[in-house]
Design goal:
This protein has helices at about 1-70, 130-135, 160-175, 195, 210-215, 240-255, 255-270, 275-290, 295-305, 305-320, 340-350; strands at about 75-85, 85-95, 95-105, 110, 115-120, 150-155, 180-185, 190, 215-220, 225-230, 330, 335. By secondary structure, it is α+β, with helices and mostly antiparallel strands. Helix 6 (about 240-255) runs antiparallel to helix 7. Residues about 110-115 and about 120-135 have low confidence and may be disordered.
Length: about 375
């Protein structure tokens, strides 16, 4: 009987020991599993954040390259990248202001104000004669006349506007006085404080009064307060508004042909100097002299506020067309178009004649053949 009890106790002790070992194993198992899972989670997160950092670096590199080669003739600097509404907002610093660009998370597409376009590839190559806007644009009916009017709206420092000038300049030469060619300036130049205070890159996130200080030159004209504003202005650099007044005066005093001669020099040599007021002034004066444009007359026109008057007229005329918000904007007989080249625009002009002249049979070449497809505004 004793032996049986001893055996039973021995068995019970073994069972208890097994249970104890089993509990210990289970406890260790879960500890080990927890550690393994934690390590895996850390690895996944590290990899994920590493991927995010990689994507941000990619977007940043694409953004600054795109800005410096396609949007601005003055190099910008990368100031920061944040996620906004499912896309990356990239802040580019230029002329003591910050310009936002928006990219998809893979870093391959940018939204410059209309449908997404790729940064690389044929969609930004003018040789393809396509861009997002022109692919989807419905045919435009152009009113006919004996002498069609060809108009281009620009901001004078906008790369897209510079390209637009290279598009219409050959047509002004080809048709001469058979068409009425005119460069107009977007502004706004207005008494409307709301429009003025939100009119430039530097006004973003600021009050209306602060925006006016950033974007505009304030004038007392005809017993009213006018604000002469431009997209690329800033509080410390209002040269775009001043240059627009000067170009409007050149066109009025010396004619459109002389304006295009001036623009050939100015766009190639002076816009890049806009960060230094002294160098910029030397450059535009040299461009006037080079093209035999009377600098004294042009300066007098600006000082007497005739340039301001011309910009007011351009802005009010643009408002009558429905408002102009992008540079370049092309019009033939007040019909808005999106041409792909000078020759393409020539066809539109020719369709606006009551009787097309012999010049319409010619193929028009333009001096600038690269267009990013990007507009300002």
């Amino acid at each position: 009987m004793v032996e049986k009890n001893e055996v039973t106790k021995e068995i019970q002790n073994e069972i208890k020991q097994d249970v104890k070992e089993t509990k210990k194993f289970i406890k260790n198992y879960w500890l080990v599993s927890t550690v393994i899972l934690a390590l895996l989670l850390v690895a996944v997160l590290a990899n994920n954040y590493g991927y995010i950092d990689f994507q941000k670096n990619k977007v940043g590199n694409n953004a600054i390259t795109f800005f410096n080669t396609q949007l601005s003739q003055t190099p910008g600097t990368l100031e920061g990248i944040t996620q906004v509404s499912g896309v990356y907002q990239v802040m580019i610093g230029i002329d003591n202001q910050q310009v936002p660009l928006y990219f998809t998370k893979d870093g391959n597409f940018i939204n410059p104000g209309y449908a997404l376009i790729p940064i690389t590839g044929s969609a930004i190559n003018s040789n393809s004669n396509t861009n997002t806007q022109t692919q989807t644009q419905a045919p435009v009916e152009i009113p006919k006349s004996s002498a069609p009017t060809l108009e281009l709206f620009v901001w004078s420092f906008c790369p897209g506007g510079v390209y637009g000038e290279s598009v219409i300049s050959p047509l002004a030469t080809l048709f001469g006085n058979k068409i009425n060619t005119k460069v107009r300036f977007i502004g706004p130049v207005t008494t409307d404080k709301q429009a003025a205070g939100t009119s430039c890159f530097s006004s973003q996130g600021k009050s209306i009064d602060e925006g006016i200080n950033e974007c505009c030159i304030t004038y007392n004209y005809n017993s009213k307060t006018y604000y002469s504003c431009a997209l690329h202005n800033s509080k410390t650099n209002l040269l775009e508004s001043q240059e627009s007044e000067r170009q409007a005066c050149i066109q009025k005093i010396s004619g459109t042909e002389k304006l295009f001669q001036y623009l050939t020099s100015f766009n190639a040599e002076c816009i890049s100097k806009k960060g230094d007021a002294a160098q910029f002034e030397t450059c535009w004066k040299s461009a006037l002299d080079k093209n035999k444009i009377p600098g004294t007359d042009i300066t007098s026109c600006v000082n007497q506020k005739q340039g301001l008057k011309l910009l007011i007229e351009d802005y009010e005329y643009g408002q009558s067309l429905g408002g102009i918000s992008s540079s370049p904007s092309y019009f033939v007989n007040k019909a808005q178009l999106s041409p792909t080249s000078s020759d393409n625009l020539k066809d539109s002009v020719c369709s606006a004649f009551n009787n097309a002249p012999t010049e319409c049979s010619q193929v028009v070449q333009q001096s600038t053949t690269t267009n990013s497809g990007v507009q300002c505004g």
